[in-house]
Amino acid sequence: MIPESFVGAGLRLDGGHRERLHHPRRDAALEGHRAGGGLTLLLGIDRFMSEAQAFTNLIGNAVATIVVSKWENDFAFERAKAVLSSPPPPEISMR
Q: b vs e for 37-66, b when ≥16 Cβ sit within 10 Å of the residue's Cβ?
């Protein structure tokens, strides 16, 4: 007797040979599911890379602002020290 799992999977046992049977309807139904795992992985990586890109852009824009202002001799050292050494602003409650 052939186990039901072999029949359901499209496998046939004849004389010790195991071969895949072709089922067009089942193969067509599974086509959309074959790329599901890979697509999920790509979307997860894309989300992480998007966050990394946003952080890189933030740092790059800050550095570029400082470089250009120094290049133009318009960088206010005293104001930068005052802003960077001041305590953070108090949190605003929305209640």
A: eeeeeeeeeeeeeeeeeeeeeeeeeeeeee
Torsion sign (Cα): 79, 85, 90, 91: positive
pTM of the full predicted structure? Answer: 0.46
Helix (H) / strand (E) containing 71 = helix 36-71
Domain that holds residue 15: 1-34
Number of domains in the chain: 2
pLDDT, one tens digit per residue, over 46-82 is: 888 888 999 999 999 999 999 999 999 999 999 999 9
